[in-house]
Specification:
The chain is an alpha/beta fold. Helices cover 40% and strands 19% of the residues. The protein is globular, with a radius of gyration of 31 Å. The structure holds adenosine-5'-diphosphate (ADP) and magnesium ion. Adenosine-5'-diphosphate binds next to helix 11.
Length: 709
């Protein structure tokens, strides 16, 4: 290692343990390891949390009362005082040579340990005068050591591990110093760097840690953000390519008349988004490449029809289709709806005297008797069943198709990498059936590009016209909502009440539903036909309740979130969600989508007395928007990428500096660059270093496709 002279790659840096850095002994090494820093690479990619711009520094002597300011000072004295009601106050006196400042911390006893005499600190807060002395209460304090630069990096420090920001800063500096001789290897072709105005890697690492101006931190950050996003896009693009080139799909013959017939029988016109997506799907079906498409569409955007158009095209071309739904209730609903729409359809059948037979659609759930089940399975393997509808689990149990052409998966919320891989693996062998996955939980475009970048994504971004938007209202307590509920029921409509989310299992949920039911039938809902639905009911019991509700025999359905997905009862016009703050934005939006499906006015009441920032943001978002994509953006804004990236969750280094919210344009540029790089003729530009980095950070499995291409 020592004698090497070639520039350092990330792999080289990852082979250097932190113990090689000045001042890292056994104890500090353990402390660093405990926060996930094991190698010099980890140190260098422990990026500053923020910076202090010392050019903005104020002097204690010239700060005015009521003014906010940042001062750099030395600690003179630290005292802990107990108040009469046993609270602890930490009083710290600091000076910068122009005056004395007293800092007080309430309820932060650990400050007495953090701050010690002679330490250099940066204090940011509002000055007030207390008994004639300048004072700041609970200011932001950073320990900076005796850093002299104008821009001081502040690192995420760890009190638990006993690591301070200036120690981390010192190790980073030492690491940078030690790297100076060999320099950093540059994995990006010059052309790409020029195109996007990116600094080289050495500059990026140096300036992110030791900038001399704010501008430099931005340049450094851009480069590091680009690198992170590029690595992910390389994986996704390579995976997509590899799938497309190595697998052999079905070039469907879709010249038939079924879709036209279907559309002409509808009492409404398709939205232009539906037409666009149906065409996208049709052209995928015609092509030899297997379709792997995700359809994102808000609640009520009409995904079922789009899927049905695909299925009918495939069936007419002589193949079979399948729809998998997440619940039996949904599978049944699809079965009823689709059977209805295709009642008079005939498929060609040479063996038959007429030369055709009725289109055969079957429902396969656990409610189907063993005899019917065998009959349906036989029909599937001999080819007399054209479309089968069931739940995820049933279809996965090794059912044989004679000639499966298209698989539709409905309402897949989290469609993880592993599931995607499993579905593809399943399809290996001969001709691969096309796949359409539908979800009503939209995620923003750039996030989709990062999470589902190996799929094609279609978006239904338009609701059918004539829908009256749901009026959503956040109320303190539920007393004011029942009048509206009764009034709607009087007019022949129906209502849902969603119970508080308690615990995370079905037994506690059941208790919540029963308690709410008990309370309401005795009081607010007395005299109405009220029933309940929860996950502890058996399949047949659930079916019965849903059927009665659909037929209008139940006025109010008190339920858990089992009604969250897909249920379509147009006559339901009111939903009351109790303890609404316990649900996430996406879930509330899903729930709310159960009403407003007809053409009359409908309401959603979010009942919550909780006033935390987070709850306020979520509930007001729901009040002010009914657009799923807009809400998804807000959700990403509030919760950060963690939840979205959870689907990817592969590399140990996924996104340390890039943010899907802030860096939208970089996601797109990285995508383009990944395509460009993988398109390069072999030997033209060397991307082997990039591949090595992806392998290092994401593991060999992910890189397999990169090597193939
Ligand atoms: P989702 O996308 O939530 O699954 P569905 O496919 O269940 O939505 O459609 C919701 C309702 O809208 C259904 O009753 C369906 O018949 C109706 N629908 C679908 N497309 C249109 C359209 N273009 N115009 C009017 N109504 C439509
Ligand atoms: Mg649906």
């Amino acid at each position: 290692m020592q004698r090497e002279t070639s520039p350092l790659t990330l792999l080289d840096l990852d082979n250097l343990p932190v113990s090689r850095l000045k001042g890292v002994g056994v104890k500090k090494e353990e402390a660093l390891n405990s926060i996930g820093i094991e190698t010099v690479l980890d140190v260098l990619s422990h990026y500053p949390r923020r910076y202090i711009d010392r050019t903005k520094e104020a002097k204690i002597g010239s700060l005015q009362e009521g003014e906010e300011g940042m001062v750099l000072a030395e600690v003179l004295d630290v005292q802990t005082i107990r108040t009469r009601n046993r609270k602890k106050i930490v009083k710290v006196e600091v000076t910068d040579g122009t005056g004395l400042l007293e800092i007080t911390f309430f309820n932060q006893p650990w400050r007495a340990r953090q701050l010690q005499e002679e330490m250099h600190v940066v204090v940011f807060g509002k000055l007030d005068l207390y008994r004639g002395k300048g004072r700041m209460a609970n200011p932001v304090v950073d320990l900076v050591g005796d850093k002299t630069g104008r821009i001081v990096p502040i690192y995420q420090q760890s009190g638990k591990a006993g690591l301070t920001t200036w120690e981390l800063g010192a190790w980073v500096s030492d690491a940078l110093h030690k790297c100076r001789v060999r320099g950093f290897a540059e994995p990006l072709p010059l052309e790409i760097r020029r195109q996007h105005n990116l600094v080289d890697r050495a500059t990026a690492f140096t300036k992110i840690h030791n900038p001399t101006s704010v501008g430099e931190t931005i340049e450094a950050r851009n480069r590091l953000v680009f690198d992170e996003l590029l690595r992910i896009q390389l994986i996704l693009v390579a995976r997509k390519r590899s799938f497309e080139t190595t697998s052999h799909g079905i070039a469907h013959d879709i010249e038939g008349k079924f879709v036209e017939l279907l559309l002409s029988s509808l009492p409404f016109q398709l939205t232009s988004a539906q037409i666009r997506v149906i065409n996208e799907i049709k052209s995928d079906l015609q092509s030899q490449m297997p379709m792997h498409r995700l359809l994102q569409g808000d609640v009520g955007s009409g995904k079922t029809l789009v899927a049905l158009a695909g299925l009918l095209s495939v069936v007419e071309g002589g193949r079979q289709g399948v729809i998998m739904a997440p619940t039996e209730v949904l599978a049944e609903q699809h079965y009823l709806g689709i059977s209805d729409l295709t009642e008079s359809f005939k498929v060609p059948c040479p063996e038959n005297l007429m030369g055709e037979r009725p289109l055969r659609i079957e429902l396969l759930t656990s409610r189907i008797s063993q005899r019917d089940r065998s009959r349906i399975c036989a029909g599937l393997s001999e080819g007399s069943v054209d479309i089968v509808i069931g739940t995820h689990s049933l279809i996965q149990e090794g059912i044989e198709f004679r000639d499966l052409g298209l698989t539709v998966i409905d309402e897949q919320h989290r469609f993880g990498v592993d599931q995607r891989a499993a579905l593809r693996a399943k399809a290996s062998g001969k001709e691969i059936p096309d796949l359409l996955v539908m979800t009503a939980t939209p995620i923003p475009r750039t996030a989709a590009m990062t999470v589902y970048g190996d799929l094609d994504v279609s978006i239904l971004d338009e609701l059918p016209p004539g829908r009256t938007p749901i009026s959503t209202k956040w109320v303190e307590d539920d007393s004011e909502v029942w009048g509206k509920v009764r009034n709607q029921i009087q007019q022949g409509n129906q209502a849902y009440v969603v119970c508080p989310l308690i615990g995370d299992n079905e037994t506690t949920q059941k208790a919540s539903v029963e308690k709410t039911h008990e309370r309401l039938v005795e009081t607010e809902l007395r005299g109405l036909k009220v029933d309940l639905l929860h996950g502890r009911l058996t399949g047949p019991e659930k079916h019965e309740v849903m059927t009665e509700f659909r037929e209008g025999k139940i006025d109010v359905l008190i339920s858990t979130t089992v009604i969250e997905v897909g249920v379509d009862v147009p006559n339901a016009t009111v939903m009351v969600i109790l303890d609404a703050e316990r649900f996430g934005i996406a879930q509330l939006h899903q729930l709310r989508g159960r009403v407003g499906r007809g053409d009359v006015d409908s309401w959603c009441f979010l009942v919550s007395h909780v006033r935390t920032d987070d709850a306020v943001q979520r509930l007001t978002a729901l009040e002010s928007s009914t657009d799923g994509f807009e809400l998804a953006e807000i959700d990403l804004e509030i919760r950060g990428e963690g939840t979205i990236m959870g689907v990817l969750q592969k590399g140990r280094n996924d996104l340390r500096i890039a943010s899907l919210r802030r860096d939208k344009q970089w996601v797109e540029l990285a995508r383009e660059a990944a395509v460009e790089l993988l398109d390069l003729p072999k030997g033209d530009e060397d991307i082997s270093l990039l591949i090595q980095e992806v392998e290092l950070l994401f593991g060999q499995e992910e890189t397999e496709y990169l090597f193939k291409s």
